[in-house]
Design brief:
By secondary structure, the protein is of the alpha+beta class. It has 11 helices and 13 strands. The strands form 3 sheets. It has a 6-stranded antiparallel sheet, with helices on both faces. Strands 8-10-11-13-12 form a 5-stranded mixed sheet. The protein has a two-stranded antiparallel sheet with strand order 7-9. A hairpin with a 3-residue loop joins strand 12 and strand 13. The radius of gyration is 36 Å and the shape is elongated.
Length: 419
Amino acid sequence: MTTNERIQRLERLLEVSRNLSASLDWEPFLQTVLSVATELTGSEVASILEAADKDTLRFLAVPWFHREALQTVQVPMDSSVAGWVFQNGKPAVVPNAQKSERHFKGADQATQYQTHSILAVPIIYRGETLGVLEAVNKANQAHYTEDDLTILETLASQLAVAMQNNRLVNRVRQVQEEASHLDRMKSDFIAVASHELRTPLGLILGHATFLREAIQAEHRSQLDIIVRNAMRLKEIIDNIANMDNVERGMASVRRRSVSIRRVIEEVAASFQDEAKEKRISLRIDPGQDDLLVEGDASKISIALTNLVKNALTFTNPGGHVFVAAERIPGYVKVSVIDDGIGIPAKDLGRIFERFYQVESHLTRRHGGMGLGLSVAKVMVEMHGGRIWAESVEGKGSNFTFILPLDSGQPSAASRVFLP
Ligand code: ADP
């Protein structure tokens, strides 16, 4: 081969290599490698093999006219040229395949094709052999040269990266499928368990509430404990079910005009006993106007309930909890402010994550599953609102959410600035 021819071939290899790295789809990529290998080594055909198991190789890519015949052919690792190359991680040249003991005749039989000469190189990625690239039957019965070897090795190194990528993509896909299967199982479990728990719990609550009224005062405190704890269980189940509904896209917002004043008054009223018991002052200021948002009152209540519950939980006796609403341009802003234990700065960014708790679960003094705030967040965001927290450890916390004002309600034109 003249120097000019050599340069032309290498230029062609370079050009093809550039295009190959831009090629995205797997099958066309493999076919391009085969045709380039055939063209640049002056061969009749080329093929790519990969390990099927420790004893056999299978064809990963062959020319289209051999595809059907070679689909199921298993190439033995111990008695084939490709097997030798795969196991030794080294290239091999077989000038006369018919006379070679190494040559595996099965593929020729399947394709009715006669192999004369073979040049095979390993496809190696970071020391691991992934497969073998073979060029077959150099034209005019010629011998494969060092240049042919260089060409195949260059192509094999590109194949190595692509095969590794493909393996990773497949692995990611598989992991995603496994994860979504597990997620479905988890969701089904939660749906069934929360449904099954709710029914007996409702009965316990109903009967205990009835008994509390019916029996003498001396036993009332025991029934109070039963009712309180059953309520607590109900809250936990509701929070888990709410979160799961949102995740499965089952939750929807029934849009009605909701009075924020009413939501605040009702939520605060439901906590007054608990606040008194804990010697915490719970005050509200729902604002002067009756602020209306378009949304689902029960979902806004859930968000506020979880914030007030936390404020009471994380505030010491003698402390204060204050719930206020005000109108800001385009939005209603609701704040739950306490002078409780506060949240360390390092945790503040994560408290809205599911199951996140500042105190470790094993050492914590307070109940809860770390779901309250994440539920509040999804409830607010379902309404097109936002929620955030400011806090100083040892001084207290301020949880704020904003919800878009009901469009029927006159609103200031300017845009709100969000922190
Ligand atoms: P939990 O139901 O376990 O309280 P949340 O999601 O409601 O879970 O809250 C997550 C964590 O954020 C709590 O465990 C607590 O450490 C912290 N936190 C929430 N609200 C307050 C608050 N008002 N004051 C201090 N810490 C709070």
